[in-house]
């Protein structure tokens, strides 16, 4: 969309306000999807929810590719937004629930790496598709995602269901079969099954399917009440930590910088559209490389340290952008210093790297893994709602803000929000590296010996 917006504005002759709406409506429409995706995945399973999100992506891409008018583009973007709302929650949950503790950081960060590879492919394809006719180029840009959407549906048919969801349904036999497939040894599979049963409240010696698992346990009922109506101290701390990382991921301002990077580069004095699109490719390369690096560091260095390093790097990058943009904006039109333009591009690439290595990747890993199983899907749903609200606020106001207080002022504003983010990461986030999902409540202060056990049933 970052590249397509340049051509959509030209062909459809839409205003800057409409550009902001088109950019931000995706995440606005993700909100209602987030509200139901967690509960739905507790009811029908993680696999089928991922497949449903892919269908939304497919329909939205096809409609945007048709894109004859601005209202049709908005409708297609809204439908794709529903897919975003579903996918952002369930893909992370699924990845975390099938991963072992020693590799969970790596495996749970792979969806974020894949997203950044998608960004890079989008930037590169925008550069080449931008050479096509005005009417055809941007429509192909927006229609291409329909292909991998169908591919994901087909692939998900071949994958296993989350063993933790299966235990929630009382399907212990099926859960054990899955764990034997995704564990390094039979002993590891049995230990993981034992921990999951304890977390759900099933007797660890039970080996048969549970016939009378309560409807509340199967469907995730009562999760929202437990989180928001007199939550226990450890649940309250988990909720603050998870929601906080998602809020600061967006109010750091990096998303607005990336989405409107062609406009920022144009503001710096780059006017050729081909050059603008080529400059954005560097953002995709930086994000992808540093997200890949983050995947390998998460289980070695830890989540908290990466967040602190990432946030500190973004603060310094934003300060650099403040200086460069102030110099360029105070220069006469056509006389912008070349060094300031080049330095601005380089600093944005550096900022993309710092963001990707921590704030981008760790946010999803951390918020997914710290929730207890009974709260995980719906708890992450609440986090994503806050994520999308703050994202919409930043994206839909970015152009208006920099027109009011200049680009330099805007970047300085984001310096302040990033300083607050660094303080939050330092003060509120315990390290979770190497700990099992079932151990997270203990990390946040719960006595792990207080579970109520559920009796075994017999097979039908």
Give a short overview.
This protein has two domains: 4-161 and 224-443, Growth Hormone, Chain: A, CATH 1.20.1250.20; 163-218, no CATH class.
Describe the structure.
α3 (46-66) packs antiparallel against α7 (146-156) and α5 (104-129) runs antiparallel to α16 (273-297). The relative contact order is 0.15. This protein folds into 2 domains: 4-161 and 224-443, MFS general substrate transporter like domains (Growth Hormone, Chain: A); 163-218, no CATH class. It starts with a helix and ends in a 17-residue tail after the last helix. The protein has helices at 4-12, 16-44, 46-66, 70-97, 104-129, 134-143, 146-156, 163-168, 172-182, 186-200, 215-219, 223-228, 233-251, 254-259, 261-267, 273-297, 303-329, 338-369, 373-428, 440-443. The chain is 77% helix and 0% strand. The longest helix has 56 residues, at 373-428. It has 460 residues and is mainly alpha-helical. The protein is globular and about 75 Å long.
CATH class of the largest domain: Mainly Alpha
Major beta-sheet overview: none
**CATH fold topology of the largest domain:** Growth Hormone, Chain: A
Indicate how many domains the architecture comprises.
2
* CATH H level, superfamily name of the largest domain: MFS general substrate transporter like domains
Number of helices: 20
Low-confidence stretches: 448-452
Q: What is the level-2 CATH architecture name of the largest domain?
A: Up-down Bundle
């Amino acid at each position: 969309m970052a590249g397509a917006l340049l051509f959509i504005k030209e062909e459809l002759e839409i205003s800057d306000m409409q550009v902001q709406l088109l950019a931000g409506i995706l995440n606005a429409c993700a909100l209602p999807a987030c509200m139901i995706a967690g509960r739905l995945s507790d009811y029908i399973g993680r696999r089928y929810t991922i497949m449903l999100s892919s269908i939304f992506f497919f329909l939205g891409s096809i409609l945007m590719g048709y894109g004859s008018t601005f209202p049709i583009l908005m409708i297609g973007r809204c439908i794709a937004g529903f897919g975003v709302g579903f996918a952002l929650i369930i893909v992370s949950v699924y990845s975390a629930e099938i991963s072992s503790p020693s590799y969970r950081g790596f495996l749970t960060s792979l969806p974020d790496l894949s997203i950044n590879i998608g960004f890079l492919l989008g930037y590169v394809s925008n550069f080449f598709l931008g050479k096509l006719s005005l009417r055809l180029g941007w429509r192909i840009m927006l229609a291409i995602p329909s292909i991998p959407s169908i591919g994901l549906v087909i692939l998900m048919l071949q994958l296993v269901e989350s063993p933790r969801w299966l235990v929630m349904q009382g399907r212990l036999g099926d859960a054990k079969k899955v764990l034997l497939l995704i564990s390094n040894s039979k002993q590891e599979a049995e230990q993981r099954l034992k921990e999951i049963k304890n977390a759900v409240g099933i007797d660890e010696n039970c080996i048969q399917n549970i016939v009378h698992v309560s409807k509340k346990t199967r469907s995730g009922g009562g999760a929202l009440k437990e989180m928001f109506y007199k939550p226990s101290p450890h649940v309250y701390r988990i909720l603050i930590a998870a929601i906080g990382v998602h809020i600061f991921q967006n109010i750091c301002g990096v998303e607005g910088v990336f989405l409107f990077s062609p406009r920022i580069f144009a503001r710096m004095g780059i006017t050729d559209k081909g050059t603008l699109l080529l400059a954005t490719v560097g953002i995709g390369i930086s994000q992808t490389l540093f997200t890949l690096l983050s995947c390998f560091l998460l289980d070695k260095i830890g989540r908290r340290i990466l967040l602190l390093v990432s946030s500190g790097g973004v603060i310094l990058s934003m300060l650099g952008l403040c200086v460069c943009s102030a110099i360029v904006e105070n220069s006469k039109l056509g006389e912008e210093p070349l060094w300031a333009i080049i330095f601005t591009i380089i600093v944005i690439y550096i900022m993309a790297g710092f963001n990707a290595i921590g704030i981008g990747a760790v946010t999803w890993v951390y918020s997914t893994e710290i929730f207890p199983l009974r709260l995980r899907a719906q708890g992450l749903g609440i986090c994503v709602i806050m994520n999308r609200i703050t994202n919409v606020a930043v994206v839909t106001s970015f152009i208006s803000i920099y027109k009011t207080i200049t680009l330099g002022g805007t970047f300085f504003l984001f310096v302040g929000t990033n300083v607050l983010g660094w303080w939050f990461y330092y003060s509120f986030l315990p390290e979770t590296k190497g700990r099992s999902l079932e151990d997270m409540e203990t990390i946040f202060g719960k006595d792990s010996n207080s579970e109520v056990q559920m009796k075994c049933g017999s097979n039908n």
